[in-house]
Structures are given as structure tokens and as C-alpha cells.
């Protein structure tokens, strides 16, 4: 199977549809299909901050339900899921934009979006092992020793990255550069931390190119190991991008 793995969308639905076309997908009965039997894979963080989180959920859910796409959750997906369950979460850091969209829907529409997103989240694995174990897709990455396992510590790493527990002067979690120390042969494709260009480090690729912050929306084509990007329609926010100094 050949895959097109798409980085953090964050409600940038226009860019997502443009990327589908650039990758060779076309719309058919509300679904996006490809003539070469390729499968879409989403690395999580479908919603928050961008202008069309609800529409993004609708598109990805239809693809997922019809087995035309795979999906793993990101930290923003996890928070939205907890919000929909009615658990106490802080409606900030982008969630407020999704909540505003949900509250603008009528009750029937809102109930359907809740059902669709929560059922997709419930059915999704924490991370994907594909191509007989040669490829892993995990939202914020995964350590080599943790591949094939799931526990509370691994879940935290996969959703939030290798965090220290401290915060920088802008209130963002301080994250360690796990990819720099990765020694595995399995390719790990991930997102979570916005970078100006796809970051190739050892056998890892970060494809979150900060679309919602004015960068690009990027896909990695596997097994070709080529990236395909479309420019963002959002205003550029330079301070949101991480420079690893590679």
C-alpha cells in the first residue's frame, strides 16, 4: 500500500482540499479518491485555531468511515474529545475557535459532529504501524523502544512529545529533541511541532509545517519518501515555528 500522510491541519480546510488535488485525489460522492490505490493518513490535530474545524472533521470522518483514510489523534484531538465528553478542560490554546463553530450549529448538526468525531477518536489507534512495521505514524513521535507498546507514559509522549514539564516565556511546553537521538530503522512520521520545512532527522520526518500559522500544509508520500506542500491561506506568525538549528 502507498500512503499520503498529511500533517497537522488545524481547521485549514481550504488548504487541505488544495493539497488533496495536488496529490492527485478527486472528489466523488463527497469522498476524495485516488486512481492509484493510495491511502490517506492523518497525523492528528485536525481542529483548533483555523477557520473551518467542523468542515475538516466532516471530511476526515467520511474518509475514515469509508476506509479511505487512517487517522491517529493529536493532543488537540484529545482535548476536544474530553470537551465533548463534558470533562473540565480549558477552552483556550485554539479550542475556543472550534467551540465557537460548534455552538453556532443547530442542535441536530452539533449532535452529529459530536458523534462523528468521538466515534472516529474511539476507533483510532494511539499510533499506526504500517508496511509490516517499516513505518510508524505518531502525532508527536515515539521512541524506538516504545514501538509496539502502549501505556500511560507512551500515550503522553505520542500526544504531547518529549516534554520536560516546564514552560518557556511564552507559556509553551519545553520539548526535548527526541528525533536527534532516534536510532531506529523504522521510519517515524509525525507532526505536532511547527517547522518551516519538513524536518528529516535520522529515520524521522516532521511534517507539521505550520499551516495554521501561515506556513504550509505538507504531506509525505510513502514509500516514495517525497513531500508535497501547498501554501497557507493564513497570516504568517514567525514566532510559532521551531528552529532546531540542524
TrEMBL record:
<dbReference type="InterPro" id="IPR029052">
    <property type="entry name" value="Metallo-depent_PP-like"/>
</dbReference>
<dbReference type="InterPro" id="IPR041780">
    <property type="entry name" value="MPP_PrpE-like"/>
</dbReference>
<dbReference type="InterPro" id="IPR050126">
    <property type="entry name" value="Ap4A_hydrolase"/>
</dbReference>
<dbReference type="InterPro" id="IPR006186">
    <property type="entry name" value="Ser/Thr-sp_prot-phosphatase"/>
</dbReference>
<feature type="domain" description="Calcineurin-like phosphoesterase">
    <location>
        <begin position="5"/>
        <end position="199"/>
    </location>
</feature>
<protein>
    <submittedName>
        <fullName>Bis(5'-nucleosyl)-tetraphosphatase PrpE</fullName>
    </submittedName>
</protein>
<dbReference type="Pfam" id="PF00149">
    <property type="entry name" value="Metallophos"/>
</dbReference>
<dbReference type="InterPro" id="IPR004843">
    <property type="entry name" value="Calcineurin-like_PHP"/>
</dbReference>
Amino acid at each position: 500500500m502507498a500512503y499520503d500522510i498529511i500533517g497537522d491541519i488545524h481547521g485549514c480546510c481550504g488548504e487541505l482540499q488544495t493539497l488533496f488535488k495536488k496529490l492527485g485525489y478527486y472528489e466523488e460522492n463527497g469522498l476524495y479518491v485516488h486512481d492509484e490505490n493510495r491511502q490517506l493518513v492523518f497525523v492528528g490535530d485536525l481542529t483548533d485555531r483555523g477557520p473551518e474545524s467542523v468542515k475538516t472533521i466532516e471530511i476526515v470522518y467520511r474518509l475514515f468511515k469509508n476506509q479511505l483514510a487512517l487517522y491517529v489523534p493529536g493532543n488537540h484531538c484529545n482535548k476536544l474529545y474530553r470537551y465533548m465528553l463534558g470533562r473540565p478542560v480549558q477552552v483556550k490554546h485554539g479550542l475556543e475557535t472550534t467551540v465557537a463553530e460548534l455552538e453556532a450549529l443547530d442542535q441536530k448538526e452539533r449532535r452529529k459532529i459530536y458523534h462523528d468525531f468521538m466515534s472516529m477518536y474511539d476507533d483510532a489507534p494511539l499510533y499506526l504501524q504500517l508496511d509490516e512495521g517499516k513505518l510508524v505514524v505518531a502525532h508527536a513521535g515515539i521512541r524506538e523502544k516504545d514501538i509496539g507498546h502502549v501505556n500511560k507514559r507512551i500515550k503522553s509522549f505520542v500526544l504531547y512529545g518529549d516534554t520536560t514539564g516546564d514552560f518557556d516565556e511564552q507559556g509553551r511546553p519545553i520539548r526535548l529533541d527526541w528525533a536527534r537521538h532516534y536510532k531506529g530503522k523504522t521510519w517515524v512520521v509525525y507532526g505536532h511541532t511547527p517547522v518551516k520545512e519538513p524536518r528529516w532527522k535520522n529515520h524521522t520526518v516532521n511534517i507539521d509545517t505550520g499551516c495554521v500559522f501561515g506556513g504550509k500544509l505538507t504531506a509525505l508520500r510513502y514509500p516514495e519518501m517525497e513531500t508535497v506542500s501547498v501554501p497557507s491561506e493564513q497570516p504568517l506568525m514567525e514566532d510559532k515555528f521551531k528552529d532546531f538549528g540542524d
